[in-house]
Every structure is written in structure tokens, then in C-alpha cells.
Amino acid sequence: MPDIKITPLGAGQDVGRSCILLSMGGKNIMLDCGMHMGYNDERRFPDFSYIVSEGPITSQIDCVIISHFHLDHCGALPYMSEMVGYTGPIYMTHPTKAIAPILLEDMRKVAVERKGESNFFTSQMIKDCIKKVTAVTLHQSVMVDNELEIKAYYAGHVLGAAMFWIRVGSQSVVYTGDYNMTPDRHLGAAWIDKCRPDLLITESTYATTIRDSKRCRERDFLKKVHECVEKGGKVLIPVFALGRAQELCILLETYWERMNLKCPVYFALGLTEKANNYYKMFITWTNQKIRKTFVQRNMFDFKHIKPFDKSYIDNPGAMVVFATPGMLHAGLSLNIFKKWAPYEQNMVIMPGFCVQGTVGHKILNGAKKVEFENRQVVEVKMAVEYMSFSAHADAKGIMQLIQYCEPKNVLLVHGEAQKMEFLKDKIEKEFKINCYMPANGETCTINTPTKIPIDVSLRLLKAEAVRYNAQPPDPKRRRVVNGILCVRDNRLSLLDIDEMCDEIGINRHIIRFTSTVRFEDPGPAVKTAEKLKTLLSEKLEGWTITISEANISVESVLIKVEGDDDSTKNIYVSWTNQDEDLGSYILGLLQSMVQ
Amino acid sequence: MKLYCLSSDAAKPCFVLSFKELLIMLDCGLSAHSVLNFLPLPPVPSTRLASLPNYTPPHLNDPLLEGELKECCGRVFVDSIPEFCPPLDKVVDFSQLDVILISNYTCMMALPFITEDTGFKGQVYATEPTLQIGRFYLEELAEWVSGAAGSAAGAARRWKELLHVLPAPLAHAARPRSWRRLFAPAALARALARVRVVGYDERVDVYGALDATAVSSGFCLGSANWVLRSAHEKVAYVSGSSTLTTHPRPINQAALRGADLLVLAALTQTPAHNPDHMLGDLCVHAAVTLRGGGSVLLPVYPSGVLYDLLECLSAHLDGAGLASVPLYVLSPVADSSLAYSNILAEWVSVGKQARVYLPEEPFPHAALVRAGRLKHARALHDDAFSADFRQPCVVFCGHPSLRFGAAVHLVELWASNPAHAIIFTEPDFPYLDALAPFQPLAMKAFHCPIDTSLNYSQANKLVRELRPRELALPEQYAAPGPGAPPRPHIACDAPVVVLRRGLARACGARRGLARGWLSAALAARVAPRDVRAGLRAAPLAAALRVRDRRVSLDDAPPGAPGAARRPPPRLELAAPDVDALVRALAREGVADARVERGADGCIVHLPRHDTLVHVERHATHVFCEGDAGVRQALRRAIAACMPHV
Ligand SMILES: [Zn+2]
Hints:
The complex is a heterodimer.
Chain A: E1 3-10, E2 19-24, E3 27-31, E4 63-65, H1 71-74, H2 77-84, E5 90-93, H3 94-114, H4 123-131, E6 133-136, E7 142-143, E8 148-154, E9 162-168, E10 171-175, E11 199-203, H5 214-230, E12 234-238, H6 244-259, E13 265-268, H7 272-281, H8 288-293, E14 305-307, E15 319-323, H9 331-340, E16 347-350, H10 359-364, E17 369-371, E18 377-379, E19 383-386, H11 395-405, E20 409-413, H12 417-431, E21 434-436, E22 444-447, E23 451-457, H13 458-470, E24 479-488, E25 491-495, H14 497-504, E26 510-519, H15 525-539, E27 545-548, E28 551-554, E29 557-562, E30 569-576, H16 580-594
Parallel strand pairs in A: 3-4, 4-5, 5-6, 10-11, 11-20, 12-15, 12-16, 13-14, 13-15, 16-19, 20-21, 23-25
Antiparallel strand pairs in A: 1-2, 1-22, 2-3, 7-8, 8-9, 9-10, 17-18, 24-25, 26-30, 27-28, 28-29, 29-30
Helix pairs in contact in A: 2-4, 3-4
Chain B: E1 2-5, E2 15-19, E3 22-26, H1 47-50, E4 69-72, E5 75-78, E6 83-84, E7 99-101, H2 111-115, E8 123-127, H3 128-147, E9 180-181, H4 185-193, E10 195-198, E11 203-206, E12 210-216, E13 224-229, E14 234-239, E15 261-265, H5 275-291, E16 296-299, H6 305-319, E17 327-330, H7 334-341, H8 350-356, H9 365-370, E18 374-377, H10 383-387, E19 394-397, H11 406-414, E20 421-424, H12 431-435, E21 444-447, H13 456-466, E22 471-474, E23 496-499, E24 504-506, E25 513-519, H14 520-525, E26 529-532, E27 535-547, E28 550-554, H15 578-587, E29 594-598, E30 601-606, E31 611-615, E32 619-624, H16 628-640
Parallel strand pairs in B: 3-7, 7-8, 8-10, 14-15, 15-22, 16-19, 16-20, 17-18, 17-19, 20-21, 22-23, 25-28
Antiparallel strand pairs in B: 1-2, 1-24, 2-3, 4-5, 6-9, 11-12, 12-13, 13-14, 26-27, 27-28, 29-30, 30-31, 31-32
Helix pairs in contact in B: 5-6, 15-16
The structure holds zinc ion.
Zinc ion is lined by residues 68, 70, 73, 157, 178 of chain A.
């Protein structure tokens, strides 16, 4: 089965919920199982009825691979395993397995308790789902079954994010999930070896952007925060508990230390300590610098950043507060926003993308008044800043990854159609490989040349190497092997002919030709043979010619001289059927010599 | 395949395997037994040790020997920087090594001796915990040996020439001329910088010739057995393995099954002692001593069993009403070792891993540190340590040989007080020899060795389950020779190769096949014919491409430069049918064939062409005195009536 088939159930020409079906070598693999944060109805989850309209789904999917803990990559997993009924293997890295259930539970609470949604998975379902997960480590080669192998590579992006290499037989695919190619304050850059997959499935969130340097954005961010607190303003930074929050904390912590600032910084979420603890314990997944210094000082033990208490909201004077959730759609960050928004000296910094319908989305689009369900209207006089700290690869990074792993085809997901077009063009031009960008529900078929494993006789290879190395070096010269191809129990081998006869116990029938040349050459036969050998050596340069008494052999062609000292000699030339070319050539040579 | 053995210490192994034209070193253990022949190096000056009398062998006047030997507690010791016994360097040229594979941190201490100033150009592979904890062990050792009070002393050499006149046990020192002083810190740093980190079950490509995979061995954090695999051969190296349940990830046995060659090393050094019982005894001895007002000294390495000791002992003392007794860990690397153990979530047992998901540290010692119960310091004279040192207490510190490190000072200090106790847990040194320079000893000494490596019955069970085709092991583990007294050993149904330091042994079956890849295009062109049931064959001429030792067979375009000088071979399976041959010759225009049938074949005469065709069961011989045209006609005719592929 030389085709690889890909069908996005999500992330096909959109940034929403990643869920991609991959079929290769008779195996079906689901890459990510995300939910869409912008919908409250059934569009939130991937359309599993695409896979099988009714009946068990488990028999249709060989395994599910989750790239990282973001909900747009794992949010539908409990739904799939506990409500749709998938019971097959699920793979993710250890940090993802540790952190994903916390985010899933948070999201569940918001959906069920605040929005009153029904038909949602329960806390117990999340626990049961995570129990079924097999945790993998980086570079570990995991055999899902006898033919399907997967391997995780470091992806940066968030703690525990991984890219996955997937192989069936001689075909392989790399799926990136979300990744970034530049190290940040707490994570390293994505890395992959030259694994030359048949297909690279890459995210393309920033397909057209070449982002300004990280340093500039950081300086900008610190400057804004500093200016605001200097004037006595309050800074609100809505974040999600895990991910950017830690990066921004490290950034502020080091800045406060360096500038010796006294203004309080608070991290306002129940999860703070817990979240930071995950980073402390999975420190091997962070960047080089943090790993090197953690014994002396764990970067996630913050000196300047203190836990927040609700009563601080009305405290006078400057402060900086990190609060969840990140899109200002509920909870503490929204409460703080309502209190602080009407004052000009205050500021809110949105460090990431906001889904339509959220307060975050509204104010980023310039809304000066925000109305709430209870008809409460909040005037927005505070400064609103957007600063992208989300860690995705930009166009340059994507091109770099392609260069690293040298795929034979590229497929773009997790991006906007127009931007994808641009990148597709660039990839096809620059790398001269095909690039695909299927929409959701659209199947993309990629034909790959297959290679069939074969056992090759070392004797055959060594004989070839000897012949090849005996010739003057010429890089253009083709190397050729001749042998017998055997097919047994569906296994192929290429053997030397005698080896094959020995191994399988058949007696080869040998056809031999012998012709005689008469030569008038008085003297001992040995002398005649020596003369002939000298002549042959001149004519047959590069061939192995040996002599033993009156017998000469030119590789496998035998020449024997017979006759009394004073009479005519009989020269017998003998060769097997397959040496006809050489045998007849030598015979011709000897015939012309004696005339 | 050939296997060289470079270490005489089966618990600190070092082998070199030549496999697929590569030289692969398996472990590079450093035997430290030699240090027991040296005087202790106290971390702070000791008047007792400094004032020991010189020793001179009777009837010998050798000025070169002056000051090299001292008499202490009725034994003779060498007064010099202690020396170690690295792997043999005469049998294998270290500059020719391609790869070094390390199984765990107790088996890598000789690394700088192999890789530094030897011309070594290869790769070194180990897991992340092996590298980190190995670094702690090595740095601790280097700091103690170089930082000790008496380290100004030069290297004593003369005594090595005079072994025959020295008293036991020095007289029986094994090959002291090959002993070496520890490497300089710079060489150590360079050697460690060479190590490439691998994860469990990560397939490492070794120069395209084979894959090397580290699989969990269950012995300590990051400990690994190695599986070497080419397309047709599998070698398993099992070193330092444990089937007990402790803090590391459990042993992965499945990966080791069915190897062509199984190399077994580093079994337990104390087969008579059950580690669980020893741990229980230790807790009891410690509690009794503490209750009596004495302190407990545990000479240990800075990682490994230490973590289990901290966990079990603290819990036991809590239960015994001794929760207020402080625990001290003294080591130049104590802080790093304790911190590291708690970030290695991916390398610990499932139970410990579950704690990380909460998230809580996998080991309780972090909580003990936070609670002020466990204190750690770099050295004895650290202010932080000496300021709040109070007794009775439990002190964990090195070195288990009692020849250097803080333990030397503490034994000197406590030796005369019978209330104190020293408990030996590390299995590397005979405890009585370790204590020899401190006699007479009033403090109690207990021997509770905890070695979780396989014992003989566990190893025999493992070998039976793994079913290797061939087993290689050090002579210590092999069956005793005929007439020798019986002792526990490893038995195996498969052939056993016995290894001894300095010897090379051939092993492993030779396989004549390499893995290649056939292009689909070429595969589609060949049409194999049935040779017999279940076997089909066809001649094949293919363009060969070898890149990084990966063999590819593709379609050979006709007439390509350097193309086949010989046509693809044809395999004739049986003699031609003679009647068919005569008819075929007639079609070729050779019509006067006369057939003469004999007992063992037929002769076909072609008198007009002066030619005879002798057809036998396994050979057809054509004696052709006619011209080339006749011969070609004969070839075509024979080909036409002969079964072949
Ligand atoms: Zn993401």
C-alpha cells in the first residue's frame, strides 16, 4: 500500500481544533483530539461519525497521539474515550499526561458550572481517560504493534510539547503539533534529526509572518509594565495557568531583580504553586539555562511574585497581577478587569490570542464599553495592549524545520487558508517538493515510492566491493550486483548463485564448454603456459590471472597446456555457460595468437 | 564477533565487542579495591595517622623505599595518594574504539582513562541520570582525593618492585604496576563532555551498521541494559540489573529475549545477603544505637541506595519515636544529588511517578529537607553544618572504602566510643579491610550490604527466560572447573563463553546477510519462477547504492557506464532433455546429431562439427572444436530445453 492518506477533522485550513486522521500501510492513526474554544455546540468536538457512522470506533483507529496539553489539541479526548467509546491506545509525553487533566477539568468547570451545559464529560471521565494514556519519553521508540512505531521529538511551545515521528514499514510521517524554533525564557527550541519522512505535517499558524525578535517584544512588554506602575497604575495580565504565564513571570522576576523594583507583583490563581511545581519537577523539559542552574536556584521559585488575594483588588497604588483565565471570559481576571477598566492610569496586557465572543476579543477590537449579562456596562478607559507571546514557529522557523528533517512531501494544517497558500508556494519553490493543504473533511492522498526489505548476501556485496575498488575511482560509475532473488515465506533475499544452491539444497546443473587450440611450441608445457600467461596479462589488464604449472586461470576460465616437450601443444580452454563472454574472448585471443 | 575482557572485577566490568567491523566498549568500570592498600587520607590533619612508624622489610636496605610504607594497627599500608585499577589498556587500542556504551553510573568511573590522552575518537552513550549521577560520583571522588590533607605526598612506586618481600595482604596486591592515580579534574570534565545522552528505548544508529538501544535494567536511576541489533543479529548486554521493586523503573526483560549472544556482568557482590533483610537490620541497628545516645555513621556513595536509605530510615525512626534525630548528608555534591533525584520523574517506578502527577516530589527527601529533618552540606567544616550539628544523629557520607572523604574523619573521631555505630551498606569493599587502619575499634560495626543486583538464582532464572543462543560471562560466574569445589554459578543450555581479563573470545554465529532495500520498480520487473514448493527465484541484476551503510537496490538503466560486465547468472536446475535438445539443434540448423545413451548419461555427437555434448545428471559438458557460430547455436539449443530460473 504505497499511498499515505490524510483527512483533517479539524485544523484543515483553520486554527481551531486539531484532529487529523492519518492512514498508512493499513494503519489508522489519529493525530491530536482537540476541541474548538469558539463553539458551545456539537461543532466544538471533531466529527467522529466521519470515521464510522455507527458501531465501535476502536476497530477503526490503531492509536491516538496527543502532541501537547493545549485544549485545542487534547480537549475532545475524554469525549472520544469515555463517550464515543474509543478503547485503543493513547500516547502523550509525561508532562502532557500530568498537566492535561488539570486544564480539562478547568474547562469542564467553566462549561458545566458557569455556562450550565449538559452532555459534557464529567470529572470522573477525565480521570478514567487519563488512566488509559501511555506516557512516552523523548526519542523513545514505541512499538504500538508489530508494524507501527512512534517516536517523540522536543517541540518547545509549552512544557511537554512533542512532535511525533510515525513509521509503518518503510513509510514514515512527522506530525509537529505546535512548535517553535527559537528558545524562549523557559523552553528550548524544537529539534528533529534528518529522519527524511515521506510526509511532514506541520502547523502553520504564523505562515506569513517573520516575527520581530523575541528580545524586542520582551523589552516592549517590560517598558510598558514599568511605565504604567511608575505612574501608580495597575497592570492586569490575563493568562492561562500553564505556559506563557511561567515565561512572563520569569521575565518580570528577573527585571524586578535587576531594576530593584519594589512594586508588588501577584500571581492570582489557585493553581500557582501547583503549576509552578510541574515546571520544577519536569525541569528536564525546560531550556538549557534553567536546567543548568536549578540546583542553586530553581527559576520557578519566584522571589518577587507573591500569591494574590481577592481583597487586594481595591488596594491603592501600583501593582501587577497575573490572573486566569487568559481571554477574560470568566473568573478572577474578568472580576479584576471590571474594577480596573474605568481608570486611565491602568493597563491590561493580553499576551495571547482571544476567541470571538470573549471580552478579551472585544476590547482588543477597540470596544470602549463592554456590556455583561446582568446589563452591567463597564467603560474601558484603561490602556489595552496586545502582545503576542504565543510560541509558534514563524515562516522562517517552518522552513528551517523542513530543512532539518528533509521530508519528501509537506502538508500544512493549523493555519488560515490564505496564509497557507503563500507558504505552500514558497515551500514548493524553495525545496522542489509537493505541498498540500486539505480542508476539513477533505482527504489528501500522497503517493510514496515504497522500498521492500531484502536480505542481501554479504559474499555478493564483498565480491562487488572488491571488483569496484579494483577499478580506478570514478564517481559516475554505476555499481552493479548480480545474484539470484529468492522468495520464501514472503521474505526476499538476494544470494550468490552457489550460496543459494547450498542454502536451499539444490544441485545446480553446470554447463561447461571446452575447446582446443593447437600450438606449435617445442619445449616443456610449463614454459608454453608461462608464455601464454604473459601474453594474456598484456591483453587482459585488470583481470586476475594465476598460473600453477601448466594450468592458467583467468578468473573462472581455465586454460590447460598439454603435450610432450618436442611436439605440438594442445591448449584446452574451458568455461561455464555464464562465463561465455570471457571464455569466447580468451579462446579467440589464443586462436589469433597461434596463427 | 569477538569479545575482549579488560577488567578482572566482574562488578566493575569492561568489555570490548567487535561486531560488524565496529569496536564497541561495553562499560568502563573502575576497580577501587586497590585503595584499601593505602593509608587513609583524612580531610583534616590527624595526629594519629601522621605519626605512624615507617615500615621496612626485614633484611632489606633500600633507600628508594624510604617513607613509602607505614605500619598501622599491625598492617602495612602504602603512604601515598591512593591508586585505582583501570581497565587493561594493552589488548585493545582505545584510539580504535568506535563507541562506548555505559550501563549505569557505577560502571563508568574509568571513562577518562579510556577517552583522554588515548587518541579516542568515538562516541560515548549513556542515559541522562547515568551521566548526571556518574558526574556526582566522579567529582566527589576527585575532590576528596585531591583535596585531602596529606595530598602533598608523592607517588610511592618502589614498593611495587618489592612485593615478594612485603607481608600480606600487600604481598598479594594484584598487578600494582598497572594502578593509576585519579585523573585531573580537567580530564574528567572533558571525558564527561563527550557523553551523548539517550533515553530508554531510543534507537541509536551506530555508523549505519547497527542500532544500540538502552533498555531499563531496574537497578538504579537511569540504569540500562544495552541491546545491539543489526538486521540479522542481536546482542544483549545485561549489566547491573535488578528484578526487585525499588525506586527505579522496573527491568525491561522483553527487549532482551532471544539474543544471539547475551553478555552477563555485574551480578550482586554479596549473594549471601538479602537486601530487604539488610535494610530491616540496618534500621534496627540505627534505632538501638540512637536510643542509647550514640550516633550512626553510614559510609555511602552520594546517590543510589542512599535515596532508599533516607526514605526507609526516616520512616522507621518516626515509628520508633526518634523523629527528632537529625539526618545529615555530607558530600561535595549532596545538594545536586538530592535535587536531581527529584526531577527525574521519567526514570522512576510507577509508584513514584504517580506522585509527580499530583505534583509532589517522587522522593520524600525534599520534604525532609523542607521540614529541617534532613540537612546537607558540602563538607565537615561548612559553617552551616558545624553550627547546628547535634548528636545523636545519623550521618551519611563517603567514601565507603574509608580511605578518603568525611567518613575518615568521623571514624577517627568516634572509633573509641562504644555508643556509636558504623553501618556498612555499600557492597564494593570488604568492611573489615575498610576498617583495618582504624583498629582497635570500640564503636560498633555492622555489615548490612544492600546490593540489589541479580543474585545467582535470579540471574539463572533470567537467563532461562531470555533464551539466548550463546551466553558470555566472566569466569567468576561460570561453572567451576572439574574437580574444583562447587559454588553458585550461572548455568545455561546454550554454549557458554567464559571471559577472563586480557583474553579475547570468538562468539556469536556469523551471518552472511545484510539488510537492503529493493525499489518497487525493480521488484515489479522480476518474475520469479517456482523452484519447488514455497520457493521462487529469479536472476537479478541491480544498481547498487550504499549510503551510510544502507544498501539500496534499484533498476539498472541499460547501457549505463560500468554496467554489468557479466550477465545476470542463470540457475540451471536439471539436465536438458536429450530428445528435446536434438530437436532444438535441428531447429538451429545442426541436424546430424547422434545420441549414445550410457549408464550415467548421454553423449550427443555432432561429427560434422567435431563436437561432443556429454549430458550427465549434474553437468553438461560441451567439447566443441567447431567455430563460434556452432557454439552459439548449441548454447541457444541447450537453453531452450533446460529447466532454469
Ligand atoms: Zn498549542
